[in-house]
């Protein structure tokens, strides 16, 4: 499953690369912020990850849905810049990670892997980039069928 990571720093790209051990998961990175105008950057991706400063209006969510995106992982503590209800309406599953920094790489990889494998995402055990295991009960997905 391919995932496009928006507003990706070199540190995040490196950390995701180190955390991803699955040959079924492919990540592509862009420094661009997500918008309806650059939805072409997600060609072939079924998932996207966006940073804490990005917002997604209805036009952007429509563009993602039209491109076949089924999962949005927010690298933010909340949904304040995102409309999860509208995402649900257009068939996109949305969840957030409690940490927007490069250590969030393990969250991102584990979340995409769980989704790709058809596993529930609401409570997942992770290992961070330092190998420390923890349970993250704060991933609250807005499920879209």
Characterise the protein shown here:
This protein has 145 residues and is of the alpha/beta class. It is built from 4 helices and 7 strands. The protein has helices at 10-19, 58-66, 84-89, 105-116; strands at 2-5, 26-29, 47-50, 71-75, 93-97, 124-127, 133-136. Residues 121-145 have low confidence and may be disordered.
Tag the structure with descriptive keywords.
alpha/beta, two-stranded antiparallel sheet, 26% helix, globular, disordered C terminus
In short:
The chain is α/β, with parallel strands linked by helices and 145 residues long. Helices cover 26% and strands 21% of the residues. The model is unreliable at 121-145 (pLDDT under 50).
Number of helices: 4
Distance between the termini: 18 Å
* Structural classification: alpha/beta
Output the helix-strand order: EHEEHEHEHEE
The best one-word shape is globular
Main sheet attributes: strand count, strand direction, barrel closure: 5 strands, parallel
Rounded to the nearest angstrom, the radius of gyration is 14 Å
Sheet with the most strands: spatial strand order: 2-1-3-4-5
Question: What kind of oligomer do you see?
Answer: single chain
| Approximate helicity band | 25-40%
Strand share of the residues?
A: 15-25%
How do the helices and strands line up, and which of them pair or pack?
Elements (H helix, E strand, L loop, with lengths): L1 E4 L4 H10 L6 E4 L17 E4 L7 H9 L4 E5 L8 H6 L3 E5 L7 H12 L7 E4 L5 E4 L9
Parallel strand pairs: 1-2, 1-3, 3-4, 4-5
Antiparallel strand pairs: 6-7
């Amino acid at each position: 499953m391919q995932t496009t990571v928006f507003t990706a720093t070199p540190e995040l790209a490196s950390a995701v690369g180190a955390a991803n051990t699955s040959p079924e998961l492919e990540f592509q990175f862009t420094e661009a912020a997500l918008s309806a105008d650059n939805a072409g950057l997600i060609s072939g991706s079924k998932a996207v990850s966006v940073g804490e400063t990005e917002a997604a209006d209805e036009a952007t969510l429509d563009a993602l849905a039209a491109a076949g995106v089924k999962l949005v992982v927010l690298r933010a503590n909340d949904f304040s810049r995102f409309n999860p209800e509208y995402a649900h309406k257009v068939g996109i599953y949305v969840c957030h990670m409690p940490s927007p920094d490069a250590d969030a790489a393990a969250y991102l990889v584990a979340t995409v892997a769980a989704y790709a494998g058809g596993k529930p995402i609401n409570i997942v055990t992770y290992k961070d980039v330092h190998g420390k295991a923890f349970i993250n009960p704060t991933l609250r997905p807005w499920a879209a069928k």
